[in-house]
Amino acid sequence: MTTPTAVDPASRVYRTVNPATGQVVREFVPLSGDEAEALLARAHAAYLTWRQTPVAERAKLFLRFAELVEASADELARLVTLEMGKPLAQSKGEASIAVAMFRYYAQHGEELLADEETVLPGFTKAITRREPVGVVLGIEPWNAPLYQAMRATAPNLMLGNTVLLKPSEVSAGSTLFFDHLFAEAGFPADVYQTALVSTAQVSAYIADPRVRGVTMTGSDRAGSAVGEQAGRNIKPVVLELGGSDAFVVLDSADVDKAAATASSCRLALGGQVCVSPKRVIVTEAVADEFIAKYTETFAGVKVGDPFDPETTVGPLSSATAADTLQEQYKDALDKGATVLVPGGRVDGPGAFFTPAVIAGITPDMRIYTEEAFGPLGMIYRVPDADAAVTLANSTKYGLGGTVYGEDLDEARRVASQLDTGAVGINNYFGAPIEIPFGGTKSSGVGRELGKSGMDQFANIKTYGIA
User: Fold this and answer.
1) What is the per-residue DSSP string for 103-130?
2) pLDDT at residue 2, as a whole number
């Protein structure tokens, strides 16, 4: 381990910087132009064989891979916590989701890929079949590197595509670990490869005819660039981008449950989750009671070493991330926001930010329109359900949402009016493996997981037999 460095860990160098200390732990050598081309050539060659592998055989490999990930969960979790700073228990939980994902597709692959028959005049049979298309490029972030990488990989491998996975520059180690596990599980060589490539090499991949689709999770700025390149080359694209999800608490809500859910979800992964409920919108009738319970959770967190089992909130992913959140927080305070729980950037080594809660947020504050990617709770008081809907939809984002209300007719009415890709009623919905996941507006296009995770990069081909 070297001494603390001033190098920005978010730069285009594959470098592990411990966000709890600011120390450089490891650097990775990015691929040369020839190496990047060779990686793609191998992925394409592997596809030509992998696409012929029976689904039942793919399922056996999926189950073996899941066993290996499960057996390696402790090591994978340590890598994730070292790279991006979330508490070790949360990193281990992420590994378990990757395991569940591969088991889901192993168990349901044949069902999800089954032919669909239609009766058509003039034909004895018409069949719709989902067929693979080739190499899929995944561009994935640092906040959940195991889950994100496998969310892009599992449905595509089951379909018969092969995958090149570009990880975040700050979390290459945990993603590279999968290359070893795929080989040990017995997958054919090169059906999955981690690609430590540059931005220019990503653009070259997108333009290459052997790459048949691109899936990306990241900022709306990066998504716009990737989407433009994919469109220019007539490639299907899935973009899972930013979010500023609303958590709506209605007059009839079970306040205890609502406050517990909203606060725990906002603090998970240090608040660094696209689909985190960032904006709590609570009606006046229950606002005081809700705020008292919500702020109690924030005030009781323990910020510290993410390897310490007593820690509930670790550092943010980098000094840059913590500084950006501090700038947003300070901007809100300077413009009159009310502090309900004080917090902010912690002096000293590491990228620590003490969780804070604010209210009195106005449109001239940065956080009104920007995504706050960290443990900053934001409370909005509104007079009624209609005002809650208007405020919830005022953002450019539309990833997910949550509505709490024991009056289910009203809760369903509010949920139906939220302009989002998903909404949970009286529970946080998140991104279940079995259900399509994605957003509207600047939160992206396309869907991942469930059957939709295959359909995005399948040739949905029809056969008519006379």
Assistant:
1) HHHHHHHHHHT--EEE--TT-SEEEEEE
2) 31
